[in-house]
Amino acid sequence: MPSYYRLTSIISKAIQKHENHLHSVIKESLNNAQKDLLDSLLSNETGNDSEPSGGSINLTSLKQPFHSLKAAHLKANLNDWQFLQSIYQNVSPVINKLELSPEAIRFYAYIVLKTKAFYLTRRRAESRYLHLLAFVAHQSFRFQDMPVRFLNVDGKKPTRSFSMLYAIFKTRKAISTNALRRSFSQATKRN
């Protein structure tokens, strides 16, 4: 049985080797336009976290989506998601090359969620980009899942407005499914 010091040394070296691999992938794969896009998240850091994001979107406004059903908050969440989605689509090839598990994405994203932007700017470039890439991926999916969370929060009965939205969604899905079945059956009858 190895000693505690030996065991921690082995684990630390393995973690450092993996981080170095991720940093080298970022250094090779991330172009200047993508770096500028990620850095813009940190350079716009002047907003107020308690207000819906308006004209300028910054890292702070992207950290926590609004959980309110107010129209302004829903619109702010939609704007933030669209902004994140545009960045995600631009950097997704790099994220895919990193081959991060969902747990690793969540780990790096949570560091960004809990850290002030100032401290992120002081990180080594590759480390900063790794954390921001994970943040963009994590938050993009999180904002995308927000409407589903409203349907059933903590096992409670969904709100009336979202129950109606869900019913509309199911109806549209059924209509499109039936239309697809009809088209398929018509196409098979012709053949």
At a glance:
The protein has helices spanning 4-29, 32-43, 59-63, 71-98, 102-114, 117-121, 125-151, 160-190. The chain is mainly alpha-helical.
Give a description of the structure.
The protein is mainly α and 191 residues long. Among the domains are: 65-151, no CATH class; 155-191. Helices cover 77% and strands 0% of the residues. The chain is built from 8 helices and no strands. Helix 4 (71-98) crosses helix 7 (125-151) and helix 5 crosses helix 7 (125-151). The radius of gyration is 22 Å and the shape is globular. Mean pLDDT is 78; it is low at 46-54 and 175-180.
Give the radius of gyration: 22 Å
Low-confidence stretches: 46-54, 175-180
Q: Note the main sheet.
A: none
User: What fraction of the residues are assigned to beta strands by DSSP?
Assistant: under 5%
Globally, the shape reads globular
Structural class: mainly alpha
Distance N terminus to C terminus?
70 Å
Q: Can you give the mean pLDDT?
A: 78
Furnish the topology, listing elements before pairings.
Layout: H1 4-29, H2 32-43, H3 59-63, H4 71-98, H5 102-114, H6 117-121, H7 125-151, H8 160-190
